[in-house]
Backbone:
């Protein structure tokens, strides 16, 4: 124990740098864990739809939505959800799954909905992950 104390006093800058790096790693890992809390894979989406009557919100452009979307998914404009997240108030007791082309936009909307008290998730990997998992699509 005395050796550690001697080392710290002899190498104070190195000791401080080590502590700062450890704190930064802890903060980054906390943020990463928090961000992934609401990311789910296609299998989990299917389970939520089948067993918990989840609402699927597709925030892609209408043209892309019509080319292929998850069964019973609702097409919504992300701007509308940003401006009025209470639009989904009647679905507050159901899980809400937000789907986009990529994960980033759906994560933002899911995080917004989480802040407003919804049980919201983001499809990790977006519709690409859904298609790669060979899940069914509805085309209009």
Residues:
């Amino acid at each position: 124990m005395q050796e550690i104390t001697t080392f710290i006093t002899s190498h104070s800058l190195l000791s401080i740098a080590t502590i700062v790096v450890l704190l930064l790693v802890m903060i980054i890992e906390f943020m990463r864990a928090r961000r992934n809390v609401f990311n789910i894979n296609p299998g989990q989406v299917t389970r939520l739809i089948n067993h918990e009557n989840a609402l699927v919100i597709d925030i892609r452009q209408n043209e892309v939505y019509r080319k292929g979307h998850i069964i019973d998914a609702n097409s919504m404009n992300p701007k509308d959800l940003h401006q009025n997240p209470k639009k989904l108030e009647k679905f507050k007791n159901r899980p809400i799954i937000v789907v986009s082309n990529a994960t980033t936009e759906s994560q933002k909307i899911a995080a917004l909905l989480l802040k407003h008290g919804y049980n919201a998730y983001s499809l990790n990997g977006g519709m690409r992950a859904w298609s790669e998992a060979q899940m069914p699509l509805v085309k209009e």
Notes: The first helix runs from residue 2 to 10. The chain is about 55% helix and 15% strand. The radius of gyration is 21 Å.
